[in-house]
């Protein structure tokens, strides 16, 4: 389908955005999680270095998100999206030849930057098209690309584990990413924008009595989810567990229907009440690692509950925040991305500090448990709608 002919069906635009998220989030970012224990086993990285690489990636993600907003507001969104999406696939390919930790750290930083740009601009571009064509209710389907990316990256790592070693483990993801990135970038760069709805900035304070607890709770969500989503396979390796199915596979499977489930709960119970439940589920997920006497069962519970909830926290928070501030789209996006990104940056740093002080990797999850409880409690102070 030619995107310049204003497609009547939302299927292909949604597919293009979902594929972009598969490339940058599945093959670019989260494939690193199941690769961590293999890299440690191969002698490529230590656990401390793995945490440092994750930190560099999150620094890049936060930088890229801010760069995306800068580009979008200046009319350069499509160009930035094209360069970042294709660049992300090229960076994944470049990691095959990165034998030194320093060069790999640079590439993980650049991977994060390109990921941040795409993760903001691809959904924003397609959402604009959906709004112009009265199909905004379908926008959540784009994020199925995250779940499909998680599942695909896990399958790739499992299928090639015995055949590849060291940096060669990046090769399958790089090979698949390139054609997907090229098609998605071409389609999105030519997608007709239509006539999007106009909004005005009402210039009210972004941080007020209504939104401040929501923003602080979302910070907790970022810290609460990032530790298991980065180190869950490494914990299994640290405990000498050979799980079947693997914890990361369960994360991927649970993430796919989660968007539909949490969207339904938000519609029935209200977004605030759904978020309270969501944070409780995430708290149970992290607590399972810390308190379950059966290690394998704890890992499985953490994987299923976290995989089935983290995407819900993202879009429920965005939707509720726009209810509280309906005319502050760019500023609101910047605030949420910054808070979530900073929290993701703090998580691996805390893990690295804990490991260097002699703590086990699993013990550092206590920070995530506290963050989830923090978020759940703060949500009780968030109103369901803006009051004047």
UniProtKB/TrEMBL annotation:
Coiled-coil annotation: which residues? none
Q: How does it sit in the membrane?
A: Multi-pass membrane protein
The protein's matches in Gene3D superfamilies, at most eight in alphabetical order, are given as: MFS general substrate transporter like domains (1.20.1250.20)
Query: Which Gene Ontology MF annotations are present?
Result: transmembrane transporter activity
Using the record, list the residue span of the signal peptide; answer none if the entry has no such feature: none
A family per Pfam:
MFS_4
Alphabetized, the UniProt keywords read:
Membrane, Transmembrane, Transmembrane helix
Give the location in the cell.
Membrane
* Any single Gene Ontology cellular-component annotation: plasma membrane
Q: Which domain of life is it from?
A: Bacteria
For this protein, the record's InterPro entries field holds:
MFS_4 (IPR010645), MFS_trans_sf (IPR036259), Sugar_transporter_CS (IPR005829)
Q: Where are the transmembrane segments?
A: 50-72, 79-97, 109-131, 143-164, 170-189, 210-227, 247-265, 274-292, 298-320, 332-351, 357-382
Protein name stated in the entry = MFS family transporter
Q: Which organism is it from?
A: Thalassolituus oleivorans MIL-1
């Amino acid at each position: 389908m030619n995107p310049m002919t204003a497609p009547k069906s939302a299927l292909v635009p949604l597919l293009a955005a979902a594929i972009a998220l598969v490339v940058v989030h599945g093959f670019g970012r989260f494939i690193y999680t199941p690769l961590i224990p293999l890299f440690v086993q191969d002698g490529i990285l230590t656990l401390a270095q793995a945490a440092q690489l994750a930190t560099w990636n999150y620094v890049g993600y936060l930088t890229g998100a801010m760069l995306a907003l800068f580009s979008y507001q200046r009319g350069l969104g499509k160009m930035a999206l094209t360069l970042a999406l294709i660049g992300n696939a090229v960076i994944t390919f470049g990691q095959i030849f990165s034998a030194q930790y320093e060069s790999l750290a640079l590439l993980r930083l650049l991977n994060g930057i390109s990921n941040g740009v795409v993760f903001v601009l691809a959904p924003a571009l397609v959402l604009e098209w959906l709004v112009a064509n009265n199909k905004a209710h379908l926008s959540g389907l784009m994020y199925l690309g995250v779940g499909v990316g998680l599942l695909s990256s896990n399958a790739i790592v499992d299928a090639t584990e015995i055949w590849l070693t060291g940096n060669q483990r990046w090769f399958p993801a790089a090979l698949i990413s390139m054609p997907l990135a090229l098609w998605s970038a071409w389609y999105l760069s030519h997608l007709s924008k239509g006539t999007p709805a106009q909004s005005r900035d009402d210039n009210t304070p972004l941080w007020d009595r209504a939104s401040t607890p929501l923003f602080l709770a979302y910070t907790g969500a970022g810290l609460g989810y990032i530790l298991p989503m980065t180190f869950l396979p490494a914990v299994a390796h640290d405990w000498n567990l050979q799980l079947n199915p693997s914890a990361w596979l369960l994360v991927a499977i649970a993430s796919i229907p989660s968007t539909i489930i949490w969207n339904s709960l938000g519609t029935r119970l209200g977004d605030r009440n759904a978020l309270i439940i969501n944070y409780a589920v995430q708290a149970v997920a992290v607590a399972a690692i810390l308190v379950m006497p059966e290690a394998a069962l704890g890992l499985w519970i953490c994987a299923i509950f976290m995989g089935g909830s983290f995407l819900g926290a993202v879009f429920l928070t965005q939707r509720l925040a726009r209810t509280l501030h309906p005319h502050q789209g760019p500023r609101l996006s910047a605030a949420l991305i910054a808070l979530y990104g900073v929290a993701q940056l703090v998580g691996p740093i805390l893990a690295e500090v804990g490991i260097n002080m002699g703590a086990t990797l699993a013990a550092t999850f206590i920070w995530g448990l506290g963050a989830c409880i923090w978020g759940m409690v703060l949500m009780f102070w968030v109103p369901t709608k803006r009051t004047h």
